[in-house]
Amino acid sequence: MNTTPSSTLHLSTTASIWPRSDQDQPQADATNRLCAAGKRALVLGGGGSTGNAWLIGVIAGLFDAGLDVTQADLVIGTSAGSTAAAQTTGATPTELLAAILAAAPQQGTRPVRSDGGRVPISSAADHLERTSKIIAAAEDAADMRRRMGALALQMNAASDGSRQTQWRATVAARLPSQSWPLRTVLITAVDAHTGEPVVFDRHSGVDLVDAVAASCASGFAYRIRDNEYIDGGYRRNENADLAAGYERVLVLSPFGGRTRTPLDWRMHLAAQVDELRAGGSRVETIFPDSNAEHMFGANAMDLSLRPPAARAGYNQGRALAAQLTEFLH
Predict the structure, then answer these.
(1) pLDDT tens-digit series, residues 77-120
(2) For a designed S-S bond to 79, which of 46, 47, 125, 179 qualifies (C-beta 3.0 to 4.6 A apart)?
(3) Secondary structure, 3-state, the chain
(4) Chain centre distance of CA 114
(5) What angle, 0 to 180 degrees and rounded to 10, lies between the N-to-C axes of helices 141-157 and 121-137?
(6) Could you tell me if 201 and 30 are in contact, meaning their C-beta atoms sit under 8 angstroms apart?
């Protein structure tokens, strides 16, 4: 087992979300339905296209080694992790991994638009610069979320509206099943108008495709009925604190627990783990190995890196399965 800080499997010996007060909204926030206690929780953090591939790889590696983590009592998905959470409800991890590895090779390294086309490098860099300025100017996390929502709504106003339809079709094509599973799956997002975090589940009156599309909405706000939402990673990149009260929590973080926000905002994974530990949970975290780190961060939306990211995750999952078996059983 690699013991470098960025790739170690960490053993630790969770928090709050603001419920919607607007009773007219049909998308019922699942916060008040969260189970106060349970045995096993799986947390799938955000991390772009390569992060999604790595998550599937880790889950498939564990699965092929005899450990099916998708059967956890609670699965929490954020952004790319929401896609992985939904994907595992309709296909086996082995099938999902095979699909990634069998995909046609992608040329170039430019990021991907929500409609599947290539984004000019300058556009991706501009978005990163804009969001970095918002983080730097914000007073706190709540202020940052409101500013991010305002930027997304501004981007919507400048578009012809086709992005919504294209993005939904793209997300739908990624999901083997478009039905919510019976087991508890939570999908995070943020209200673009208020900046308040929202949690969707199968009782929220929101299609699984729409919940995932909202959780992954970056650079624009995704509309569900009469409201609009942005990436759930603006609440917290992993949102592991939603597993508060669960005995054992396994967190897969493509970004290695890193954050772009100030540490005193406590959005980083270490703060979430502290909260889980304070509530009596045991926590394991899996980060990408150091030799795979170049596939995340600035390269997180590079489709050509999905197969190697999935293979790296698979190798980690296979290597860590024996150590995790006792923890999860």
Answers:
(1) 999 999 999 999 999 999 999 999 998 776 544 444 433 444 44
(2) 46
(3) CCCCCCCCCEEECCCCCCCCCCCCCCCCCHHHHCCCCEEEEEEECCCHHHHHHHHHHHHHHHHHCCCCHHHCCEEEECCHHHHHHHHCCCCCHHHHHHHHHHCCCCCCCCCECCCCCECCHHHHHHHHHHHHHHHHHCCCHHHHHHHHHHHHHHHHHCCCCHHHHHHHHHHHHHCCCCCCCCCEEEEEEEECCCCCEEEECCCCCCCHHHHHHHHCCCCCCEEECCEEEEEHHHCCCCCHHHHCCEEEEEEECCCCCCCCCCHHHCCCHHHHHHHHHHCCCEEEEECCCHHHHHHCHHHCCCHHHHHHHHHHHHHHHHHHHHHHHHHHC
(4) 16
(5) 140
(6) yes
- What CA–CA distance (Å, rounded) separates 143 from 148? 9
Q: Structure pTM?
A: 0.87
- Answer whether 252's CB lies under 8 Å from 208's CB: no
Cβ atoms of 73 and 183 within 8 Å: the answer is: yes
C-alpha distances in angstroms, 13 versus 79, 105, 247?
Answer: 27, 43, 10
Q: What pLDDT was estimated at residue 281? A: 96
pLDDT, tens only, 187-220: 999 999 999 999 999 999 999 999 999 999 988 9
- What's the rounded Cα separation, in Å, for the pair 96 and 235? 27
The long-range contacts involving 204-207, CB below 8 angstroms and separated by at least 24 positions, are 204/27, 204/28, 204/29, 204/30, 205/26, 205/27, 205/28, 206/27, 207/178
Please name which of 293, 155, 135 lies closest in space to residue 218, comparing C-alpha atoms.
Answer: 155
CA-based torsion, 215, 220, 223, 227: positive or negative: positive
